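## retry 2 of 3
previous attempt timed out at serialization; input unchanged, resubmitting
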Amino acid sequence: MTAESNQILGGDFKVDSLSIAFGGLKAVNQFSLHLKPMELQGLIGPNGAGKTTCFNLITGVYLPDSGSMVLNGKSLVGLNPHQIAEAGIARTFQNIRLFADLTVLENVMVSYHMRVEYGYWDVFLRTPKYYRIEKQFRESASELLKVMGLENRKEDKAKSLSYGDQRRLEIARALATQPKVLLLDEPAAGLNTQEKAALMGTIADIRNKFKTTILLIEHDMKLVMGICEKITVLDHGEIIAVGTPREIQDNPKVIEAYLGVG
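## retry succeeded, writing output
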């Protein structure tokens, strides 16, 4: 149950024609996406384009009005968020959501408890099984923190970390769920230039080390163009372009969406 011994296998994830409307307003219309195993894709678009709504649909926060989502052959439509997490999709959030008063290590261990293998009586009686599994959780969490460069802060409160370290901790916590697909919602938000450069390397390392598939929402174009193999562009809830970073940079529809000119 370690970061090395329990390597995550990237998922094959297909989204087809997802749509949702709020009060008659079509927030997302016919959104489709195919993430191949271990692929690193980007999802970009102007503010209000519907990117986070897509993440909320994928993770079960919203129920789509129509469309399908299939992970490794299993349909996810209609499942609630914890069932989708158990199926193999994890996410981070645009606004960091950590347990501020728990330690860095405890924040990661929380995610391992999603797949806990002991029962109520094991906890109540503090059985050998309970202690054995908790020891495994602690060791696995420590290994993840080492990967993310946070091992020396594991006993510190999460709220004492710098903004950049909190971002890395949130990613570590998501990885602890052993996802097949990892969704990163603006992981570079609030980071300085040096932290963003380090994050690019971290995301690439995560994909290669844990063999996971990654979908990234990000406004920092240098980061997106630097690490993503394929990019989907949304505008007003609809896909306006799909392609390689070079193709997206030169696409007139994308330029118009961002700059407002033809």
